[in-house]
Amino acid sequence: MPRPTDSQLTEDGLPLARTGGQVLLIACGALAREILDLKRLNGWTHLDLTCLPAKLHLYPEKITRAVRDTVARHRDAYDTIFVVYADCGTGGLLQAACAEMGVDMVEGPHCYSFFEGNQEFERHSESEITTFYLTDFLVRQFDAFIVKPMGLDRHPGLRDMYFGNYEKLVYQAQTDDPELTKKARACAERLGLSFERRFTGYGDLAGTLARL
Amino acid sequence: MSEEDDIILAELDDEELVQQMFDDLYDGLKEEIEEAVTILLDRGWAPYDILTKALVGGMTIVGADFRDGILFVPEVLLAANAMKGGMAILKPLLAETGAPRVGKMVIGTVKGDIHDIGKNLVSMMMEGAGFEVVDLGINNPVENYLNALETEGPDILGMSALLTTTMPYMKVVIDTMVEQGIRDDYIVLVGGAPLNEEFSRAIGADAYCRDAAVAVETAKDWVGRKHNSQKSA
């Protein structure tokens, strides 16, 4: 299967390519590359993957409905369905929906937390309330998720209304990629924030998927 | 040069000027709003009328189009920034001229949360609707809210959160108010992107406000009910 582009993952997600797995992962498009990498590296052929458009994160109130619909569409075809979303701004609604549908999901408030490890993130979260996080995907899709939706391309003067209370941008690196680090640093400069690169790898995501 | 560029605000009559202010607010044109406010003041308009008829009137259109998905956050922020410019001129005059006061609100973003765009919009629209607003800013522990309730004596406590991780702190504040026996002395309104009605009920707030316009209407409604119940008591 050709590797999906980031734009496809943002706009359309990833259609289900059935490979005979018994477990279906319904994931956020922002996690597609990482999940495909983990599948390949670990030989997890029992996991099939479909992703919802990552841009749903711009409207978190739409995530729960989209996940519900996707579970309903595929539940007869799989023994197990696992939702690869954290709470992701749904205010507990996604968790409640998953419980009601009898499917499990990733623990944690958002991907920044589970990439770093939920316990570790929780430990330092109070001291990092003025930190803005980016993952590999969000660095690559910085324009699509930050610049354009926030109107910073059209109205750069809005930057301080959005980011005036932030101090630092932490780039949570899932992979070692100097080009991506360079781009992340440029993102920090554009937002007027100091920069830190923090290698996380796949964090809790790897362990969570390994248990399926 | 576009036709719009040719508009000279001072040459418009009052009705046309107010309509133009609606358009300029919609387009987030701060300098034009400031100029128009000054023109109306020079023409003898009461500051309160400029606020309610022109600025709040214009922001109401912005709010409705935001709710209907016609406008998005950047445009609302630009409009709010334009309104802020007009408010800055009017605010000292409103204090001098004794504009009617609907009620008083203490508002702040909860502990652990630095996101204040929604809170700032609510504060501004509440002020526009005649409420006195005491803004506690961001990252407020329970002590800040309690101190402000005691010293300011508001009708309403407003709490805001953008993060799933910080919104439960609203319950900490409300539970503390219950423990201290002061919960029912105040109307508690909550808002923020990940919140919903169910959450609001679960933590014991009086109402969830999904946007600034709803916050204003909800606040007016609850303050009206509170005053009515006090009269009949």
From TrEMBL, chain A:
InterPro entries: DUF1638 (IPR012437). Residues 51-206 form the DUF1638 domain. It comes from the Bacteria. This is DUF1638 domain-containing protein.
From TrEMBL, chain B:
Keywords: Cobalt, Metal-binding. InterPro entries: Cbl-bd_cap (IPR003759), Cobalamin-bd (IPR006158), Cobalamin-bd_sf (IPR036724), Met_Synthase/Corrinoid (IPR050554), Meth_synthase_dom (IPR036594). GO terms for cellular component: cytosol. The keyword Metal-binding applies. One of its GO terms (molecular function) is cobalamin binding. GO terms for biological process: homocysteine metabolic process; tetrahydrofolate metabolic process. Residues 102-233 form the B12-binding domain. Coiled coil: none annotated. Residues 8-102 form the B12-binding N-terminal domain. The keyword Ligase does not apply. It holds the Pfam family B12-binding_2. Belongs to the methylamine corrinoid protein family. This is Cobalamin-binding protein.
